[in-house]
Amino acid sequence: xxxxxxxxxxxxxxxxxxxxxxxxxxxxxKLSISxxxxxxxxxxxxxxxxxxxxxxxxxxxLDQLVSAADQDQLDAAIAVQxxxxxxxxxxxxxxxxxxxxxxxx
Length: 105
Fold this sequence. Notes:
Blueprint: H1 5-22, H2 37-50, H3 54-102
């Protein structure tokens, strides 16, 4: 199920507002892209809602997409590491149990 256009536009506007207020000046490159008409309409509306330029809305959306992909990769790496840690812990349970059993209090 795809989000409704108004909800998508609002999310784009929020992303652009946060992006516009948090970014330091940096280099820019002009490029030409083709977008579906309905998507461009939503981007333009989000730009108007947020007070940002169309370029800022698109840059914010791309920045958020890249950040989400980076976070997904990090989360996957942490999950693998957690699984390995659990295997090590499980492997040492018998040894740890024996050591605790042999402790004289």
